[in-house]
Amino acid sequence: MMRMPLIRRKPFAGSCLIAVLVLGALSAPAAELDAIVARGELVWAADQEGGGPHVFLDSDAPGRLTGFEVELAGLLAAELGVKARFQQGQWDRLPLLLGRSVDCVINGIELLPERRRDYACSRPYFAYGLQLVARRGGPLDSFERLSTPGPGGQWRVGVLTGSAAEVFLRSRHDLAVDVIGYDGTIDSLEQVQTGVLDAALMDDCIFNFYADRFAALRAVGRPFGGGYYTVLTARETPKLSAAIDAALGRLVADGRLKALYDRWDLAGRQQILALRDATEIPVAERRTLSQLVATTLPLLLSSAGMTVLLACLSFPLAIVAGLGVAVGRLHGPAWLRPPLTAYVEVVRGTPLMLQLYAIFFLLPKVGLALPAVVAAVAGLALNYSAYESEIYRAGLKAVPTGQFEAALALGMTKWQALRHVIVPQAVRLVMPPVTNDFIALFKDTSVCSVITVIELTKRYSVLALSTGRIVELAVVTAILYLAMSWPLSLLSRRFESRQEPRA
Amino acid sequence: MITVTGLGKIRGGAPVLADVSLWVAEGEVIAVVGPSGGGKSTLLRCLNGLDTFDAGTISIAGHSLAAGPHSPRLLEQVRRDTGMVFQQFNLFANLSALDNVALAPRVVAGLAADDARRRAHTLLDRVGLASFAAARPATLSGGQQQRVAIARALAMEPKVILFDEPTSALDPAMSAEVLDVILDLARGGQTMVVVTHDHAFARRAATQVVELVAGRITRFGPPLSILAG
What is the pLDDT of residue A6? Predict the structure, then answer.
C-alpha cells in the first residue's frame, strides 16, 4: 500500500517546488502531545482513494469512512484521551502533511529504512505478505513460472507504484517480467481482469478484501516476503511518537488489536508479526548531494526522454486532427459541423486526466487494450486537438476573403484553395499560439502518470520520496523542464517576430 | 464571347442590377463605367460566378450560367476560361511572385511543375517583372503586385479577363505601368471587361463602353459617343 507521485494535479515541477518552499516557510511547528490533548483532537491522515481494507468509503452508507485503520485511529485517539479526526490526503504525499495540519499518518505506510531516516516510525501494527494474482485458468500458475517468458513473451505484472511489491519485482532481474506501475491497486486488478496484464503483485490483505469483486481472478501461490505497517509521526514530536507507541503496546497486550483484526477478517500471521519492534528495521543513510545527483540524474534524464517522446508524438497528431476539425467546421458539409462542434466542446470541457483514464482503463472493457504509451499519446493528441482546432479556426478566419476569391477565380476547387492558399497562411498566422500550446502540452505530459507512464514528474515524485530529498530534486527537475521548454519559448518568439505585414 | 440577357440581382430588398443586357465579341475590350455603387463590380463578379444573380442568363466563354446557385463543377469550368484581376491585387501572400503565377497552371490545368514554372517565367517577363520571380508579394510595390496579378490571370490562358478597378488602389505612376500592360493585351486581341473610373484609359483601350447607374445600363456604345473629351 504505497503510492509515490508527489504531483498529480500540479503539472509543472516548478510550481511544486514553489509550493514546497511556501509551505515550508508558512508551516507551524508540529503539534506536540500536550497541544493535541489541549485541542482534544488527534488529526490522522490517510487516502480514502487507497481502498480496502485500510480506509475506504462504506458502500452501504456513501460518505461514511470505514476500514480497519479508521477503527485503529479511533482506538489510538481514545488512548490519548482525545477524539480522532480524519484528514484526506494523497497517499504518497501523506508524510509531507506531518507537522502541518496533521499529527500522524495511518494508512498502510510500510516500515522501510528510508521512512525511519525521515520520520518517527511507531512499532508495527500490522504485517503483510506479497500476493501474486492472475486470471483463473490462465497460464500463470506459480511464482516460479515468472522466471521463464510466458506465451506472450515477458510477463506483464502490475504493481502499485513505489510499493514494496514494485521494489521487490524490479530488484529481481532474474525474472522475465515487465513491471508496470499503477496509481491504485484496484486499477491493476481491473487490468488483469481485462487481460491487459498477466498478473498483479500486491499486499495480501488487499487481494483478500477484493477477491469477491474480482471473481475471475485468483491468488497464485502463498503470500511471501512482505513487511510491516507503521504509524508515522514527525521527528519533532517525540512525546507524541512515544505516546502512540505506548498506546499500540496496550492495544496489542490487552487483545483489542487482535479483536479488531478478527472483526475485519485479517487472520493469521499478521497479529503475531505485529508484536515486533520498529527498531529491527535499519535506518537508511543520508546520501550527499553529489551522490544524490549521480544516482538520480540518469533516471531523471531517461524520464525526461519519455516526456519528450510523449510530447513530440502527440502534438503533431493534435495539430493534424485540430486542423481537420477546424476546416471541417468552417468549410465542410453542413451535416458534419454539429458533430465537430460537439467534439470540440466535449473534449475541451472534460479534464485530460479523465480522458486518459477512459482510454486506458475503459477501452479494454470493450476490447481495445492500448499499451500505456500509446494510450498516453492518444489522450494527449485528443485533448489538444480540440484546443488546436479553435486556434486554427481563428487563423483560417483571419486570412482575408480576397485570397479565397482569387484562388476560386483561377478555377481552383474549394479544397485546392484551402490546401494551397488558405491553410498555409493560417498555419503561419497561428504559429505563436501553437508553439505556446506545445509548451503547455509538454508540461501536461506529467498527467500521464495516472496511466502508468513514468515521465519526468512521476520519476521525480518517486525519487523524492525514496531519497527524502524533496527540494533538491525539485530544483533539478525544474531545471530539466526549463531546459526543454526554454528553446520552445525562443522559437515561439522568433515566429512572432517573423510575422510579415500582410499585403 | 459574352452575352448577358436581362440580368437582375436583389440585395437586401433593393435591386443592385436590373435588366442588364450586353454583348461582347471576341477581341473586344469593354469598359464598364459609372458612379460608385452603380453595380459595376457586382456585374463583373456575376460573370465568373463569384456572385449569384436572381434573374436573366449569362453566357460566357461557351458556358451558361442561370439565376440562383451554380454547381461547383460549372463554376470551375467558367473560371478556368475567365481570368480575374482585383482592385486589391489579392496575390497569394504565402507564395513568391513566380509561384503565384505557376500555381493554377499546375493544380488546375495539371501542368508539370517545370512546365508551369517555365510558363510563369515567360509571363513575368512579359509584364516586366522577370527579375522579381522570387519576391514575396509583401515586398513588391502596388503596381508590381498588380502586374503579377495580371500575369497570374494570363497563366490559365483565359478566353476573357475581368478587371475590377485594377488601378484604383494605385498612384498615377504605378497606374500607368499597369495600364500599359492592359493596353498591350488589348493590342494582342485579348477579350477583356474592365471596370474603371479612368475615362482617359477607357477612351484609349475600350472598343465599347457600358455606363451603369443604379444597376441599370444607361448608355452602351463606342467610347467616343459616350465619354466626352
Answer: 35
